[in-house]
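Hi, here's the filled form for the chain we discussed.

Project: internal
Contact: R.S.
Residues: 241
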Amino acid sequence: MQLIPSIDLRAGRSRLVFWPGASSGTGNPTDRPERIARHFVELGAPSIHLVDLDGAAQGVPVATDAIAAVARAVGVPLQLAGGADGAEQIELAFAAGATRVVVPVWRVIESPETLEACLRVAGDWLAIGVDGREERLREYPWRNRPIPTLDALIGNLLDGGVRRVVLSHWQGATLTALVRAVDSRRADLQLAGGVTDIDGIRELRDSGASAVILGEALFNGSIDYEAALRVLDNLRTAGAA
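And the returned structure, exactly as it came back:
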């Protein structure tokens, strides 16, 4: 399981100021996303998740300069969420420097044509962002169709060619079934948010999820990224013994 740092972008900067040396009073705080990304990659981050908050509001990538700056600063995959609402927007995200994109499930849920167009542009680098709360499915205005269960919804996406799902607001009670559905189709399930401490990472180690996306917990000091990586390494070593 990978641990992927996430940076929220607003007006071209990080929404939250990051101060890696805050606990010891060393270093300097920064809201420059490329500096924050470089810090985590130097510690071993396999990729960076970027959230374009302005893009999410406007339905098109907005933080293109910030994305480009991060792409120049680090040599790992950049996964962009926010603003990648269709094939044309995905092309803009790739042109800015993103290598993976997350499209909200609501953009493709009832439009196979939109999903197919996104897949033509992004292929295996397309992820679909799914809200794990069952009440969100019930609240969606379905067009004379029965309301699907969460695992049925994800299964339909995977059957349609999606190879990566980013699940937010996930709940432990349903996680096992979702992981099984994704794994049976040789796809990846990333869990966004929901982890606030090292114990949460330990609990998810054997969940079957391919990655956990960590955002605010890294900025407020709840999780030390370097320590979290050591925990995963120790668990892998213990499992292999």
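Let me know if anything looks off before we file it.
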